[in-house]
Structures are given as structure tokens and as C-alpha cells.
């Protein structure tokens, strides 16, 4: 009897760990665990995901560049950019002449992103930072994306609100909602199609459209309500703000410095701006 109970206990512990660490990727255990898991897996992430360039172009690069075709040099923010997946497909589109800022919680994922997007380095800036409060003023970007990541964040609502805030009126949102069999194991983190669309509308988005995409994810397109002029290219110093006080930053050789409290945010050797 003792051995049976021990065996059952061990199975339960393994199942619990599998659920929390593999399926939920640390989402219920706090930001540190999520960061740790992505830092650990950064070097093998692309090998695990096996992105197919044709598929990436068809579902992400092409529709996004076409949706922005009338905006000269659009400015895009990719929240939870990972290893630079969106940048890789977007910058391959011939008609795309914009710039991208990629933000992520995992420094090692960003290191991989820098390597993978080296051919377009002069058009991309990477920020090491959590998505909870985005260090940009209102109405900054022509488009904001967040792929396969909202369910790992403590509050999808807060991040959606932040993405809405930094989008210009009429700006485009491209994001994902977790579906499939594992979605049932992510209570409070995955939504029904109706609930997610409702959440986006309640946040301030309109023209919400859900597109079937992968076994585990729907792709969602929406626009920020209102009409605004395209934003286009702007100097980093004009759009990046101190995460501490919201004040402007000025550039020194290897850092950005807050104009108010002189807090320094290093620019690492690989170019990543470290705001964590
Ligand atoms: C499944 S990966 C997706 C990466 C990329 N968007 C893609 O589609 O390949 C999830 C990413 O979300 C990032 N992430 C998780 N929580 C985050 C947060 N609170 N703020 C910023 N990034 C976060 C992780 O570090 C990881 O790079």
C-alpha cells in the first residue's frame, strides 16, 4: 500500500511539473520563472518551433506589410519579440520599408534575435523589458504585435491596454489567442473566441477579426478606434521614455540617460537596450 501511494504521489508531482513548466511555461509561477525558462531554452527555441518561412510569410509578413502599404516607413512595436520571428518575415517583404522595435523579458531570447536579424540590424532596435508598462508615449506606433505570448503574462488585459495606448488612432494590432487542447489547462489565460474579441472591443479596439492560424493559436487582427495620421520613422530619443518617471532620455555613447533623474539604461555590446 505504501509503495502504491508513493508511486501515485510521484506521478502527481510529475504531472504537476509538466503542467506548470511545459504547458503553462511558468505563467502561474511568476515573471522570474517565465524569464528563467525562456533564458534556458533561447538557444534551442527556433529548433523546437521549426518556423517554415513560406508559412510565416503567408500568415504574418505578407498581410502585415500589405496592411501597412499606404504608410510610408511604418513604425512597428513587437511585444514579446522572442528570437525575432516577426522581424525575419517582415523585413523579407520587398514592399516593406519600415522599422521595428522588439521588446522581450528574456535577455537570452533577445541575444538570439539580434543574431537572427543581423541583415536588418539598422532597422531594428531591441529592448530588454517586461510588457507590463511600455516605455513609450501615447500614439507612437503604426502597428503593434504580440504573438504567442499574452497567456504567459500576469495580466493580458493590462498589456492589451498598453498596446492600445501606444498605437496611434487607426493603428493596427496583430496578436494571438491560445486555443486547442492545452488552452483548457490555462485557466484565466486563454479565452474563447467570443470572449477575446469582446475583451479587445472593451479595451478600445474595433474591426476585430479572428483568423484560424495554428493548432494552438488563433491570429487576431484589430484597429485602434479613431483616425490618425501615420507616424512613420522617428528618432529613438523622440519616442523612448524613462520607465521610472516617463521623462525623455538622451543618448550617451553606451547608454540612454533619463533627463530627470539621470538614471542610466545601458546599451549592451550586442545593441540591446537594457531597461529591466
Ligand atoms: C512563445 S514565445 C513567443 C516569441 C515570439 N513572439 C514568437 O512568436 O516566436 C513567448 C515570449 O514571450 C516573452 N514574454 C513572456 N512574458 C513576457 C512579459 N511579461 N513581457 C515581455 N515578454 C514576455 C518570453 O520571454 C518569450 O520570448
Keywords, separated by commas or semicolons:
single chain; alpha/beta; Rossmann fold; eight-stranded mixed β-sheet; three-stranded antiparallel β-sheet; 34% helix; binds S-adenosylmethionine
Oligomer: single chain
Indicate the mean pLDDT.
95
CATH class category label of the largest domain:
Alpha Beta
SSE string: HHHHEHEHEEHEHEEHEEEE
Query: What are the bound molecules?
Result: S-adenosylmethionine
Q: Which structural class is indicated by helix and strand composition?
A: alpha/beta
Determine the CATH topology of the largest domain. Rossmann fold
Verbal overview:
The strands form two sheets. The protein has an eight-stranded mixed sheet, sandwiched between helices. Strands 8-9-10 form a three-stranded antiparallel sheet, with no helix packed on it. It has two domains: 2-47; 52-234, Vaccinia Virus protein VP39 (Rossmann fold, 3-Layer(aba) Sandwich), CATH 3.40.50.150. The longest helix is centred in the N-terminal third of the chain and has 22 residues, at 2-23. The chain has nine helices and eleven strands. It is globular. The chain is of the alpha/beta class and 276 residues long. Helices cover 34% and strands 23% of the residues. Strand 4 (141-146), helix 7 and strand 5 form a beta-alpha-beta unit. It has helices at residues 2-23, 31-41, 45-49, 53-67, 85-90, 107-116, 156-166, 193-203, 236-239, and strands at 75-79, 99-104, 124-128, 141-146, 167-178, 205-212, 217-224, 249-252, 255-258, 264-266, 273-274. The model has no long low-confidence stretch (mean pLDDT 95). The protein binds S-adenosylmethionine.
Amino acid at each position: 500500500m505504501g509503495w502504491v501511494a508513493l508511486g501515485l504521489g510521484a506521478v502527481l508531482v510529475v504531472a504537476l511539473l509538466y503542467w506548470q513548466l511545459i504547458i503553462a511555461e511558468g505563467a502561474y509561477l511568476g515573471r522570474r520563472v517565465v524569464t528563467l525558462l525562456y533564458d534556458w531554452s533561447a538557444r534551442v527555441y527556433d529548433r523546437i518551433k521549426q518556423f517554415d518561412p513560406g508559412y510565416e510569410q503567408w500568415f504574418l509578413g505578407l498581410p502585415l506589410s500589405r496592411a501597412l502599404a499606404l504608410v510610408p516607413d511604418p513604425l512597428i512595436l513587437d511585444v514579446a519579440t522572442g528570437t525575432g520571428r516577426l522581424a525575419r518575415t517582415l523585413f523579407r517583404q520587398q514592399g516593406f520599408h519600415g522599422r521595428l522595435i522588439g521588446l522581450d523579458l528574456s535577455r537570452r531570447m533577445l541575444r538570439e534575435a539580434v543574431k537572427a536579424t543581423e541583415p536588418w540590424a539598422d532597422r531594428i532596435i531591441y529592448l530588454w523589458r517586461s510588457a507590463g508598462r511600455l516605455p513609450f508615449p501615447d500614439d507612437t506606433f503604426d502597428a503593434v504585435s504580440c504573438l504567442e505570448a499574452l497567456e504567459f503574462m500576469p495580466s493580458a488585459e493590462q498589456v492589451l491596454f498598453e498596446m492600445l495606448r501606444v498605437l496611434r488612432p487607426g493603428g493596427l494590432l496583430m496578436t494571438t489567442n491560445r486555443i486547442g487542447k492545452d488552452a483548457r489547462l490555462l485557466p484565466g489565460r486563454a479565452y474563447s473566441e467570443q470572449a477575446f474579441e469582446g475583451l479587445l472591443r472593451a479595451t478600445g479596439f474595433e474591426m476585430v477579426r479572428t483568423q484560424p492560424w495554428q493548432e494552438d493559436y488563433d491570429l487576431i487582427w484589430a484597429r485602434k478606434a479613431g483616425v490618425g495620421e501615420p507616424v512613420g520613422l522617428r528618432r529613438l530619443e523622440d519616442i523612448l521614455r524613462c520607465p521610472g518617471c516617463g521623462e525623455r532620455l538622451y543618448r550617451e555613447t553606451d547608454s540612454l540617460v533619463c533627463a530627470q533623474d539621470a538614471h542610466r539604461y545601458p546599451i549592451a555590446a550586442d545593441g540591446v537596450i537594457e531597461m529591466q
